[in-house]
């Protein structure tokens, strides 16, 4: 669900933001209430968002996030009543936060874990509330319609019209990809406006207004690390980051915080670290886990291996695999016991065309499982492409599939090995899958960056992950008693 397509309602406008003491922020038109129409639209969208983003996280951290979120949201022009806001901690491994009209505010457990104190988390939530208060969704509605994410990723045209509402629409659902790209619909000036409002909410709520700046710095560091993990030689390009170009906004946000004239220094670091201790970090086994190049789902008892040089992302609807050689998704759906019908239904769902019939379907077997597959040639934005679906029958009532997109004439192309690697796993292998969790520890005498990062539950980039998670640098000095975050099993 893309928040930009939700009903924004009719807001009353006031010219605000320029009259506060010490503020150099320009006037921003703001909504002054939460309309009944927006409440109804938000209530309708809420369960759909929960489904797409892994549901509400079930843990003690949830109540803490609700309290902080309501406190910061009630500093906005939308409402001063905390109970008017529904704040949700999402069980998602994607670094993201967003808000929708109607008083609904969300943050993923992954982004919460990247924060280093309560004020930083409040700043993130305030930024998202600011988007709603400034009616950015409404102001970008036409642009969103013209420039849908699915169309950006892929514009497939066939006799069945596999377009942005079809294959592209499913591609954006994979592993939260649509979620990650939500804010691409906001312009640079709107991101700045949301920063300014978030900073104001921090100061008004008693927090250190500089917290948003430090959080943006952590986001910039995480974006750079994600790029390295994905094998990119440069930092993630601005158009592909969750919040465009966070590095360029760090100093601006710091100056805006100073412009408020606030002397608040409240960060609530100890309370925050105590609250997030033990939260699941990364993939939840209930949604399957990516471990290196392997995806393994202990509940369904399946696994497969992505091609070398390709990046996998896990989400509640699907797993996406992407690289220079093409894109793929792994997912499932209702199965009636006929693989040919299943493959056809997958294409029809993407095409949004119940009459579409794919070309001749071929059959085979992988790991003792019956398979069915076929390829459709189509025209993409950059030229002809092959779209292939291969389905696997696990049982008489359960099947899964890959859908791949490669250059015309390649068929499975670089994904051939992946499609052959799909397998069932044993009960013992499934039982061995454990989630990573965040552990807050106190630095002891003799601890160093090297010894602490060595305890991170990863096979690669241990130091880089540790530094980014804790907003540290290679030259940072640790002191006994200092609290830091680790990722452990």
TrEMBL record:
For this entry, list what GO says about its biological process: proteolysis involved in protein catabolic process
Q: Which PROSITE patterns match?
A: LYSM, PROKAR_LIPOPROTEIN
Q: What would be one Gene Ontology cellular-component term for the protein? A: membrane
Q: Name one GO molecular function term.
A: metalloendopeptidase activity
Q: Look up keyword Iron and say if it applies.
A: no
Highest rank taxon of the organism: Bacteria
Report the cofactors.
Zn(2+)
Transmembrane annotation, as ranges = none
Report domain LysM positions.
439-486
Q: Which UniProt keywords apply?
A: Hydrolase, Metal-binding, Metalloprotease, Protease, Zinc
Protein name in the entry? Peptidase M48 Ste24p
Organism of this sequence:
Sphingobium fluviale
Classification of source organism = Bacteria, Pseudomonadati, Pseudomonadota, Alphaproteobacteria, Sphingomonadales
């Amino acid at each position: 669900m893309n928040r930009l397509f939700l009903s924004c309602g009719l807001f009353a406008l006031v010219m605000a933001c320029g009259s506060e003491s010490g503020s150099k922020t320009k006037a921003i038109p703001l909504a002054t209430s939460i309309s009944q129409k927006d409440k109804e639209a938000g209530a309708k969208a809420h369960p759909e968002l929960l489904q797409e983003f892994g549901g509400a996280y079930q843990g003690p951290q949830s109540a803490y996030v609700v309290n902080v979120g309501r406190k910061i949201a009630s500093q906005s022009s939308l409402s001063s009543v905390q109970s008017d806001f529904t704040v949700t901690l999402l069980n998602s491994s994607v670094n993201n936060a967003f808000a929708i009209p109607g008083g609904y505010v969300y943050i993923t457990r992954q982004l919460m874990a990247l924060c280093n104190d309560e004020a930083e988390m409040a700043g993130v939530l305030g930024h998202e509330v600011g988007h709603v208060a400034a009616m950015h969704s409404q102001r970008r509605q036409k642009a969103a319609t013209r420039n849908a994410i699915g169309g950006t990723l892929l514009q497939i045209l066939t006799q069945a019209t596999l377009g942005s509402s079809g294959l592209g629409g499913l591609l954006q659902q994979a592993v939260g990809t649509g979620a990650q790209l939500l804010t691409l619909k906001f312009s640079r000036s709107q991101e700045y406006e949301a920063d300014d409002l978030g900073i104001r909410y921090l100061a008004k709520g008693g927090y250190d207004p500089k917290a948003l700046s430090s959080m943006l710095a952590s986001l910039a560091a995480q974006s750079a690390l994600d790029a390295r993990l994905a094998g990119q030689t440069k930092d993630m390009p601005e158009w592909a980051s969750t919040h465009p170009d966070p590095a360029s906004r760090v100093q601006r946000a710091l100056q805006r915080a100073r412009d408020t004239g606030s002397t608040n220094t409240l960060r609530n670091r100890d309370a925050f670290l105590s609250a997030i201790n033990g939260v699941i970090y990364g993939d939840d086994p209930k949604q399957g886990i990516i471990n290196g190049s392997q995806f393994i789902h202990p509940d369904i008892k399946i696994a497969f291996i992505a091609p070398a040089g390709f990046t996998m992302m896990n989400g509640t609807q699907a797993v996406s695999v992407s690289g220079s050689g093409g894109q793929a998704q792994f997912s499932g759906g209702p199965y009636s016991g006929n693989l040919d019908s299943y493959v056809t239904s997958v294409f029809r769902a993407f095409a949004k065309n119940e009459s579409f019939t794919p070309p001749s379907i071929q059959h085979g077997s992988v790991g003792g499982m019956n398979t069915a597959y076929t390829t459709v040639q189509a025209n993409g934005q950059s030229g002809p492409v092959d779209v292939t679906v291969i389905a696997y029958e696990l049982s008489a009532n359960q099947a899964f599939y890959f859908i791949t997109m490669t250059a015309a004439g390649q068929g499975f192309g670089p994904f051939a090995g992946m499609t052959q690697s799909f397998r069932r796993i044993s009960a013992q292998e499934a039982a061995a899958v454990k989630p990573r969790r965040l552990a807050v520890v106190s630095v002891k005498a003799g601890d160093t960056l090297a010894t602490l990062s060595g305890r991170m539950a990863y096979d690669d980039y241990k130091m880089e992950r540790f530094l980014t998670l804790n907003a540290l640098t290679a030259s940072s000095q640790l002191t006994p008693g200092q609290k830091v975050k680790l990722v452990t099993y």
